[in-house]
Design brief:
473 residues, alpha+beta, Cytochrome p450, 2 domains, 5-stranded mixed beta sheet, 3-stranded antiparallel beta sheet, 46% helix, 10% strand, globular, disordered N terminus, binds protoporphyrin IX containing FE
């Protein structure tokens, strides 16, 4: 075995100090406080936080339900090794079977050469130059959202931002995947959005998986109709239809459906959750909000209008922003990045070792479940002064350059990092910029927000706001 960092042979005996962590099954388990089934119990996140405080950056927990140990890694060197330098030694881990029911063999769950082939075919569609082609889709979704937000200004009812972010990001991702044929799909479903189940059925259980997978047939029909009608389209589905592997072979329909459905799931709830937390945090931190408003007020707009009324919605800029222009909104992006530091939607990454490895000086046997948590490392007090404080300035360019690597991983890292990262950052920045120009949100509730750490990190109860028009800049 060699060390992929240095290519020198690793002497396991020399590198591995005496086992600090004894097997938990024989005799008295030394990690008694850390006996739970990570990611299967409702309080997994709380237990992980407490265990990390007590046991440090590398420890094991014994899951009685699965009768297995899980290693928890919360050190940048181990994160780098797992995700980057020795990523080939790790497949996706615990929870994969459940995700497979939902996503088939889509890119989120596939492995090995098949995953590599699919990734090569899909990745070009998420290049920043491609992503900015979706500006019209995003602007149209925001036009629709603006009608709802304008109505909320005039309503006496609290505005449920959690539901709104879910509706908006579903609108954006569906229109990006199916384009104008979303209407075709709706017609086939008697005028109903076939993907409404994504927002209406919030539990990610077997019933959801069953309902969601039943949409595969509909997508196959759409692909056939496009081929028969030779419809010219620009959307992610078309990209999947046109993609060719290195031997110039197209993706079979079954694979294409798995990938399209994967994009719906991967692209919706993550972005919805990130924006939900971002609005809450910025609304409750006046200095951050003031700076956000100052930055977005200074953007040149294609069309700017006075705040309208519910009956006369008007369009406010910025519209059709380039990708480069969205990156220049450094404070807006810092607001988003700091929100994802505190509340990373994908809060837990699971892996399983293929062969023996060494992490933090300890032997990892083959077949070991290993987990790392963006939530834990992104609140690690060694790398983040006052880790619980919301401070977007941590993500201004100078501060970012000075920070240790591998301690900020909301989109993971290495070859399996989020393929939709550019798209997500772009849609969220455009959304925040446009809405913060026109509205100010006032958070209505008090006290801590209970978190649901399931597949994604969600607020357990809807976040409610009063919506105000801002003074015209
Ligand atoms: C704020 C928004 C988002 C966050 C925080 C996020 C986070 C992540 C994370 C942490 C992973 C790695 C999971 C793992 O390795 O176990 C991932 C993978 C992935 N994400 Fe995202 N994601 C976001 C938005 C999106 C969007 C908008 C899309 C597509 C339109 C997308 C598509 C994917 C896909 C396909 C993968 C699997 C990549 C692979 O394994 O090769 N994500 N995402």
């Amino acid at each position: 075995m060699s060390n992929p960092d240095t290519d020198k042979p690793v002497d396991l005996a020399e590198e591995t100090p005496a086992w600090r962590l004894e097997p938990t099954r024989a005799g008295l388990p030394p990690l008694a406080a850390a006996q739970f089934d990570v990611a299967s119990t409702e309080d997994s996140l709380e237990l992980l936080v407490a265990s990390t405080q007590e046991l440090g950056d590398l420890f094991r927990v014994y899951a009685p339900g699965r009768k297995r140990d899980t290693w928890i890694c919360n050190h940048p060197d181990d994160i780098k090794r797992l995700l980057v330098t020795n990523h080939r030694n790790y497949t996706k881990g615990v929870g994969l079977d459940r995700v497979k029911i939902l996503l088939g063999n889509g890119i989120m769950v596939s492995e090995g050469d098949f995953w590599k082939r699919q990734r090569r075919m899909i990745q070009p569609a998420f290049h920043r130059k491609m992503v900015e082609q979706y500006a019209v889709v995003i602007d149209t979704a925001l036009d629709n959202a603006q009608v709802r937000w304008d109505a909320a200004v005039h309503s006496s009812e609290p505005f449920d931002i959690t539901a709104e972010m879910s509706a908006l990001t579903l609108d954006i991702i569906l229109c990006s995947i199916f384009g104008e044929d979303l209407a075709w799909l709706e017609k086939r479903m008697g005028g109903n959005n076939p993907f409404a189940v994504v927002t209406e059925h919030s539990a990610r259980d077997l019933l959801f998986a069953y309902k969601f997978r039943s949409l595969a047939k509909l997508v196959v029909e759409l692909v056939a109709a496009r081929r028969a009608g030779q419809w010219e389209r620009f959307d992610f589905l078309q990209m999947l239809m046109d993609a060719r592997d290195k031997d110039d072979r197209p993706m079979p329909d079954r694979e294409m459906v798995d990938e399209a459905l994967t994009l719906v799931v991967a692209g919706h709830e993550t972005s919805a959750s990130a924006l939900n937390w971002a609005w809450y945090l910025v609304a409750t931190h006046p200095a951050a909000l003031e700076r956000l408003e100052a930055e977005v007020d200074a953007i040149d707009c294609v069309a700017v209008a006075q705040p309208g009324t519910a009956s006369e919605p008007s369009i406010s800029g910025p519209r059709s922003m380039t990708y480069a222009a969205s990156e220049q909104l450094v404070w807006t992006q810092a607001v988003l990045k700091e929100s994802m530091r505190l509340y990373p939607p994908g809060w837990l990454l699971t892996r399983r070792s293929v062969e023996e490895d060494v992490l933090g000086g300890y032997r990892v046997p083959p077949g070991t479940d290993v987990m790392l948590s963006p939530y834990l490392i992104q609140r690690h007090p060694t790398y983040w002064p006052e880790p619980e404080a919301y401070r977007p300035e941590r993500f201004l360019p100078e501060a970012e350059a000075a920070r240790e690597k591998w301690v900020y991983i909301p989109f993971a890292a290495g070859p399996r990092h989020c393929v939709g990262e550019n798209f997500a950052l772009y849609e969220m920045t455009v959304h925040l910029a446009r809405m913060a120009r026109r509205y100010r949100l006032e958070y209505l509730d008090e006290g801590p927000i209970p978190i649901e750490a399931a597949v994604n990190l969600r607020a357990l109860r809807p976040l409610r706001f009063r919506v105000h028009f801002r003074k015209t800049p």
